[in-house]
Amino acid sequence: MYLIGLTGGIASGKSTVARRLVEHGAIHLDADQLARRVVDPGTPCLRAIVDEFGEDVLRPDGTLDRQRLGELVFHDDDARARLNAIVHPAVRELSARLIEGAEQEDPDAVVVYDVPLLVEAQVDHPFDLVVVTSAPKRAQVKRLVEERGLDPIQAEARVDAQVGDAERRAVADVVIDTGGTIAHTMSQADALWVDIERTRHAKRG
Fold it and tell me: Tens of pLDDT along 170-193?
């Protein structure tokens, strides 16, 4: 198996790169989706969040009220750290299980694990390659406004709340510049796939 860790700031083109790699045959795991799964009703993780933050973070139907929880932790570093201490280990355990399952199913699989918080959450899976998508801040803000409907001040706050680009680049084996056109991003993803295939063939040989 060949395991790629894919990370980058908000609206930095991670999903575009992931989609392209899947088109080439990779398996895609999305940490954001896993983070939703671990807080489904009835999970130990959701129970722990309610114990920590109170019943107010639940909707009437028993599901997590993400917006309410987000309001509690967004401007409170201590609260966010307490939440992360509950959620990150659960996501790590689930992702490890899924990666192992993918390898058992196909020992030759290429798995792309898309982890926005790879640096912040200190995700330490045995990655063969860490890929970072990087776009200028103005491009990220523009995408958040145009594609996700945030107002510019909100968008800027979301970008600023994340770890800096330099810290992500420090862990990168490959940086994909996503500040230009989608075609330019795609061509870099295509070139990356060629390199991955070359590396895998060399390992087998």
Answer: 999 999 999 999 999 999 999 999
Task: For residue 14, give the nearest of 96, 98, 115, 110 by alpha carbon.
Answer: 115
Binding residues: 11-16
Q: What angle do CA 11, 72, 30 make, to 5 degrees?
A: 35
Annotated binding residues for ATP:
11-16
Whether 122 contacts 7, CB under 8 Å: no
pTM: 0.88
Instruction: Provide the CB-side half-sphere exposure for 148 (13 A, CA).
Output: 14
> Looking at residue 140, what DSSP letter applies?
H
**DSSP character for 56?**
G
Neighbours of 53 (CB within 10 A): 19
Burial of 110 (0-12, 13-18, 19+ CB in 10 A): buried
**CATH fold group of domain 2-204:** Rossmann fold (3.40.50)
